[in-house]
Design brief:
The structure is a homodimer.
Chain A (H helix, E strand, L loop, with lengths): L9 H6 L4 H5 L7 H5 L4 E5 L8 E4 L1 H13 L4 E4 L9 H6 L2 E3 L12 H16 L5 E4 L8 H17 L9 H14 L4 H19 L3
Parallel strand pairs in A: 1-3, 1-4, 2-4
Helix pairs in contact in A: 4-6, 7-9
């Protein structure tokens, strides 16, 4: 709506980090009214305004409602205010509800970029079917259980050589602990090779054995 | 860790928007190792790194796990990288897991401030017992049901005067629609006064009645 520095704006392009495509698809309007004209529901992002009787939602719930409305075929918009002054009263009055990011009231509020980032993050969090997390295996695959079995057996054998499992009564318990440790690591094949090498090197140094 | 521009830093204070208290409680360390020394679990915030075998979590799940560990008495830390270069390999290797914010890979990544904001937002979202939203009543209270009854009755009376409810067979249905509309608005007492005034003014203009 009525960009302060004109449009298109080469500085905006430069700051878009490759997302110029998003900027090119922006439409420019002389006023908030025409920008919102085809929307069925408008959320205004603003700090709490005591002078208005209006629903106030957290970003999480606002995005939830927006997604329900979009799924029902409605057009939903989010209004963000300009950097310094924020949305003016007329813009907020035009909106159907307010989105307010909870911030510590002692420490001021969010700037425009922060507000856009958080609402976009919520939108992404709720729409992208992302895995909860994953486990990245660098260069190769996880070792097979048998390979880890061999590693543990070799290690136990060498530790037996040096009398590590003492007293004998605790031997079984100590081996289980060792095994738990190695299984928890989700070792790759490369890890297993490395640990074989370490075990061999250490026992050669200490005992002079092969 | 080893701040580039020294510490304390008056420019940092100026940019803290009143949150100088947070800065004063920061501790300074010569290296990442000593900064993390007393932590039990460390999350590194970084873009996906192909050279490491490590758990990768979304912010939502990382904060969830961190909160569980904190509840169990563990000390949990988040490592954020410096602005340009990000965390180096040694720092990431030190971490127990990686937090990666899902961004469109075509458009680059987040800067330091954005990353801190999103992780903090997740922390706040999951820890603050915030209401889902609320309904702010400006200057006054919601009208009582009886006051809205009176408003609707008066309006129906005036509409009857001008023959609005036509045909008679539809009268009941039209009144129910009107009532639904007014009840949905959650009118304040001031709203009710305003609507009485409007109703009166319109019917005086049209009919010359009082």
């Amino acid at each position: 709506v009525n960009p302060r520095d004109g449009w298109p704006n080469s500085r905006a392009d430069a700051m878009a980090s490759g997302a110029g495509r998003v900027l090119s698809s922006a439409s420019i309007h002389p006023a908030t009214g025409s920008a919102c004209a085809d929307l069925n529901y408008v959320f205004a992002t603003t700090a709490r305004n005591r002078a208005l009787t209006k629903r106030i939602l957290m970003p999480e719930q606002a995005v939830q409602e927006a997604l329900s409305m979009v799924a029902a075929g409605e057009k939903v918009g989010f209004l963000f205010g300009p950097e310094r002054a924020g949305l003016d009263k007329e813009d907020v009055a035009r909106a159907n509800a307010i989105v307010s990011v909870p911030v510590n009231p002692a420490f001021g509020s969010l700037n425009l970029a922060q507000c856009v980032l958080l609402v976009s993050y919520e939108w992404g969090r709720q729409t992208l079917q992302l895995p909860v997390g994953d486990f990245h295996i660098a260069g190769g695959r996880l070792a097979e259980t048998g390979e880890v079995d061999d590693l543990i057996a070799r290690l136990v054998q060498r530790l037996d050589h040096v009398g590590f499992f003492y007293p004998e009564a605790k031997r079984r318990h100590m081996i289980i602990n060792l095994e738990n440790l190695f299984r928890r690591l989700a070792l790759t094949r490369t890890d297993v090779q490395t640990l074989h090498g370490i075990t061999r090197a250490l026992s050669e140094k200490i005992k002079g054995t092969k």
